[in-house]
Amino acid sequence: MRGDSSHYGGSMYSTKEVNDMIKVAICDDEEIMLREMECILEKCAREYGIQLEFGMFYDGEEIIQYMEKMQQQFDIIFLDIEMHEMNGIETAIQIRKLDRKVLIVYVTSHESYALEAYQVHPFHFLVKPLQEEEVRRCFEQAYAFIVPEDEFFEFTYRKNSYRKPIRSIMYFMSNKRMIEVHMEDGTIEEFYGKLDDVANALQNKKTDFWRIHKSVLVNAQYIFRKTFYQVELTNGEKLGISKERAREMNALYVQNIRKRMEE
Predict the structure, then answer these.
(1) Structural domains of the chain sorted by starting position, each given as residue range(s) with its CATH number in brackets
(2) DSSP codes joined into one string, 121-181
(3) Cys bridge to 174: 38, 136, 210, 215, which one at CB 3.0-4.6 A?
(4) Are 24 and 55 in contact (CB under 8 A)?
(5) Distance CA 103, CA 226 (A)
(6) Tens digits of residue pLDDT in 74-96
(7) pTM of whole model > 0.90?
């Protein structure tokens, strides 16, 4: 962590009423980049009326050691890919062992790193030199993800009506005529229906669901790691990607990477 270790845990308050606390880590081996990112984020927070807690780190080993020692979890980590000691990709892999849910935003000078970096399912990419509007847009998206306005999925089973927050649904799985709704808390609901109808109902929602199999629709926010034929979720559960969907899924990954690099 940089010279003034008391900076972590120090809070930035806006003049508005503070309702939300966001814990942010910035990891970059260039002091000027740390300060620039911090300055932009503080400006965003003032406008949103958010309280920010910053952790500032010069290299990957430093942030990993801090998270291990302090058992500290962050909401967002802005992570430089091209650091001299432990690079950002190696750092992110270690971070994911400590925290499967933290939003990782890669900061890079080279788009060529993007595909390799995607193995840890980053939330976003920012390209150096930093553009304030791009950082602001990224932070706004992250904030909306961390403190979301709930959207709901509604269904009926045995004359009972159910209304579940979409962000709490890990995946849908069809089993013959039944649709299983697998929730983040481990519970499973079910109803009669078709997965195609579920997919159509979710098209205009903010949460991104991916059809990895004809019988599985997974919430992308819970994907921890992806291989060619499998996704691992944040709870450790593994779901297979069908051969028919594998190339489509890879193409979707590449498409999302390029979209995020261009945002």
Answers:
(1) 5-146 (3.40.50.2300), 152-262 (2.40.50.1020)
(2) --SEEEESSP-HHHHHHHHHHHHHHHSPPP-EEEEEETTEEEEEEGGGEEEEEEETTEEEE
(3) 215
(4) yes
(5) 16
(6) 999 999 998 887 889 899 989 98
(7) no
